[in-house]
């Protein structure tokens, strides 16, 4: 039987790497995003003005059946401290991009994730402590961390034997990041295709982390380590 995965955020940099990796492994791949990923088997398109409830209905109504894995890599970044004129707008955007997508992915898992399946969300390494120069971002990612702990508990609504975790990258090596930080040390950035291959191994049961864990992803001198927290 062919395995299947839902990639939430399938047209972003990490999402594209995931879609490509799983397609190459001959999985059925559903991409959820505002734009279609032409490499995916199926696309579910969102509308930017959707409320959380509307987004949930749009996604839940379009998934065709049980899946082996759901990976949510939707999100974004915005800076700003408490004095920022854009504090409210950027914080609301961060919440929508990271928390809303993670909540919909969790609800999707409650309905369509197979027994023993994998649900991976995306947190952030810096959000394990205070983020004074990017308050909205840190708050949203910390909420995702808490969601993982809740989903891994008893009676959370997802299959009892499913594994739920969150990846916590520091900086992913993406075209946008390279454009925004051209003088950075790229040897400390994590390649998206490497993360995609790692998640593929988890989806197939190889070196799968303990449910409820946050997985720190740290790259130094082009070598990446994955540490459960």
UniProtKB/TrEMBL annotation:
Pfam families according to UniProt: adh_short_C2
EC number: 1.5.1.34
Transmembrane segments: none
One cellular-component annotation, GO: cytoplasm
An example Gene Ontology biological process: tetrahydrobiopterin biosynthetic process
Keywords: NADP, Oxidoreductase, Tetrahydrobiopterin biosynthesis
InterPro entries, per the entry: NAD(P)-bd_dom_sf, Sc_DH/Rdtase_CS, SDR_fam
Complexes and interactors: Homodimer.
UniProt cross-references to PANTHER family, sorted A to Z: DIHYDROPTERIDINE REDUCTASE
Family: Belongs to the short-chain dehydrogenases/reductases (SDR) family.
Name assigned to this protein: Dihydropteridine reductase
């Amino acid at each position: 039987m062919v395995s299947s995965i839902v990639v939430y955020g399938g047209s972003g940099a990490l999402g594209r790497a995931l879609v490509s990796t799983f397609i190459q492994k001959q999985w059925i791949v559903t991409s959820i995003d505002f734009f279609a990923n032409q490499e995916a088997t199926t696309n579910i398109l969102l509308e930017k003005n959707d409320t959380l409830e509307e987004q949930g209905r749009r996604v839940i109504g379009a998934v065709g059946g049980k899946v082996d894995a759901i990976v949510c890599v939707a999100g974004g970044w915005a800076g700003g401290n408490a004095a920022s004129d854009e504090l409210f707008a950027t914080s609301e955007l961060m919440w929508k991009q990271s928390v809303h997508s993670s909540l919909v992915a969790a609800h999707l898992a409650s309905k369509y994730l197979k027994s023993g399946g994998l649900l991976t969300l995306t947190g952030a390494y810096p959000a394990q402590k205070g983020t004074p120069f990017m308050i909205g971002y840190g708050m949203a990612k910390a909420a995702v961390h808490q969601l993982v702990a809740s989903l891994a508990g008893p009676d959370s609504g997802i299959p009892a034997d499913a594994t739920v975790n969150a990846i916590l990258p520091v900086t992913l090596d993406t075209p946008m990041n390279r454009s925004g930080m051209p003088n950075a040390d790229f040897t400390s950035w994590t390649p998206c295709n490497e993360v995609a291959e790692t998640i593929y191994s988890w989806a197939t049961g190889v070196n799968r982390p303990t449910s409820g864990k946050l997985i720190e992803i740290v790259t130094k001198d082009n070598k990446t380590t994955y540490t459960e927290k």
